[in-house]
């Protein structure tokens, strides 16, 4: 048996029209899963789904627009996904936001609330609304994409770091609660990954060099290097793992 075979599995990946989410959705599809591509912009979802389908040579991906900050959108995301694909086996909570980049002491309430809502509350919504559409007969998996900022304090990212630390406790709590339903819950904690989300800091050559020098491997990561871990956590290769965090940061957190 191929431990990484996802044939017949149905996955929902949020924030999957680009970056890490797109790489995860692409790799899940290449390993046999049917994948829902979801983000705030419908055109972006359609474009990403078409690209994945061209790669796999079949209809592996379907676009369903949803804003994770809107509870009604989250609820309809799973209702629509189950109509199209059937029972959901895999949920990847990837979408996140960081509306404030600056001193923590300068953040206003609106920005702080948005950070917590989009990075913590919305993941709770996603899990809560996915559960009625997940089958306990199969080895189901939920994966939250957190960050190494959950473990360290970084300048100008105070609220984001707080939200990512809370995300890890969300992972533990749901792992304990859902184990009896045979649903595993784990988290991936990337370091700095070369995506549009990080372009605010990586576009500055001196800042990029600083991040590269802060890792043992002397570089920033690529989206596909997170996707492999997502495939692992989604497959039977990780069937005895739940409530755990995998750090993928090029060694940054041990320096």
Would you kindly provide a brief summary of this structure?
The chain is of the alpha/beta class and 255 residues long.
Report on the structure:
The protein is α/β, with parallel strands linked by helices. The protein has one domain: NAD(P)-binding Rossmann-like Domain (Rossmann fold, 3-Layer(aba) Sandwich), CATH 3.40.50.720. The chain is 43% helix and 14% strand. The protein has eight helices and seven strands; from the N terminus they run βαβαβαβαβαβαααβ. The protein has helices at residues 19-30, 42-56, 71-85, 109-130, 158-178, 199-202, 205-213, 224-234; strands at 10-14, 34-38, 61-63, 90-93, 140-145, 183-190, 245-248. A seven-stranded parallel beta sheet has the order 3-2-1-4-5-6-7, sandwiched between helices. Helix 2 (42-56) links the parallel strand 2 (34-38) and strand 3 (61-63). Helix 1 (19-30) runs parallel beside helix 2. The radius of gyration is 17 Å and the shape is globular. The model has no long low-confidence stretch (mean pLDDT 95).
